[in-house]
Amino acid sequence: MTLTSFGPANRIQRSAETHPLTWRLRDDGEAVWLDEYQAKNGYAAARKAFADMSQDDIVQTVKDAGLKGRGGAGFPTGVKWGLMPKDESINIRYLLCNADEMEPNTWKDRMLMEQLPHLLIEGMLISARALKTYRGYIFLRGEYTTAAKHLNRAVEEAKAAGLLGKNILGSGFDFELFVHTGAGRYICGEETALINSLEGRRANPRSKPPFPAAVGVWGKPTCVNNVETLCNVPAIIADGVDWYKSLAREGSEDMGTKLMGFSGKVKNPGLWELPFGVTGRELFEDYAGGMRDGFKLKAWQPGGAGTGFLLPEHLDAQMYAGGIAKVGTRMGTGLAMAVDDSVNMVSLLRNMEQFFARESCGFCTPCRDGLPWSVKLLMAIEQGKGQPGDIETLLGLVGFLGPGKTFCAHAPGAVEPLGSAIKYFRPEFEAGIAPASAAVPPLARPIVIGA
């Protein structure tokens, strides 16, 4: 996977001043190994953090920069770090990198790990110093075999250079880092399910509280951050808070840059590092090049399969959490998908809900039973055998599986695209309802919210 960078007229010149995540990328798409990474100012931020900053200074700098999680939830990173215990007697702490990246239509972390493995390691090293964690794990999606190979090589290079292991940079600080490949479960993107899987348990989310910062891996304080989140840390430490905040567009409440992309039947599908606050239209037209000849944009998702569908008129929304919220959904991972006018929304949703139903851990009843129920209804509608009341039942499931109704956020993310698809494309669902004369008893009574 290579990162493409084309602007409205000319090729973008990536630089350290404007593209903190991607300026070191090679044009040939090959990995940047230690010697080249250090020649491009790699590990300078780590040396600064170890020599000139206290642990509290690092945490405060990240907090002041306004860095938020890049995995989809968008929780402030510095605040999350601040939840780790201050008690110096707790000498066993863990830092986990969530590199599971099982969200359909999302591949940004893969690019960073395959092409810039030392950027992630440097980000984790600085973060470990700030959090006083002595051991770290990169929990990697098992299918990412190239990323695993590159990360393991980079870890060995860093060890040989004295950047991992004992007495790092002569500071007396020890940090071991391991690459752990998962068995392939979407639910491991949830941080406590990831922790259970790392411990060798079934990948079920845990009850919170206690939060991982208090009771995490093997009962010890643990911080879990996404790949892209950790890769932002070196630039913040090296170049400062004001510079980092200045990268975002005016009007954006999120700071810095974001890896954004567009897939589907667009002319130039790809991945770009862009400032928060660019519009969806810029991303779609100037970078992705618009739709291929012969296709029209019907709908789009702004950030992965777990975000709601939007219409072409929503493209003027700014790409940051609050900007996308204004048009009724979430920023998610920031990798958008274009749905063209040849796609039947019922078939698309049936395919998506089958994925989410299969990936449910089965722990809580609404998710375990509700998602397969939605699949059955969508299959019937897709085949023209839907019954009167089926659409109302689907909308009822959207409500009952929404935020705060299930044990974790899996089901709310699964039904968000379903609810939005019915909202904007209800006639396509109604077309699959059988005539009353051909009707048979419905699968179940329609769910009526509040009844």
UniProtKB/TrEMBL annotation:
Cofactor(s) the record lists: [4Fe-4S] cluster; FMN
Pfam family, one: NADH_4Fe-4S
Subunit structure: Composed of 13 different subunits. Subunits NuoCD, E, F, and G constitute the peripheral sector of the complex.
Top-level lineage group: Bacteria
Enzyme class: translocase
Record function comment: NDH-1 shuttles electrons from NADH, via FMN and iron-sulfur (Fe-S) centers, to quinones in the respiratory chain.
Organism of derivation: Pseudomonas shahriarae
Substrates-to-products reaction catalysed: a quinone + NADH + 5 H(+)(in) = a quinol + NAD(+) + 4 H(+)(out)
The protein's name: NADH-quinone oxidoreductase subunit F
GO molecular function terms noted in the UniProt entry: 4 iron, 4 sulfur cluster binding; FMN binding; metal ion binding; NAD binding; NADH dehydrogenase (ubiquinone) activity; oxidoreductase activity; quinone binding
Origin organism lineage: Bacteria, Pseudomonadati, Pseudomonadota, Gammaproteobacteria, Pseudomonadales
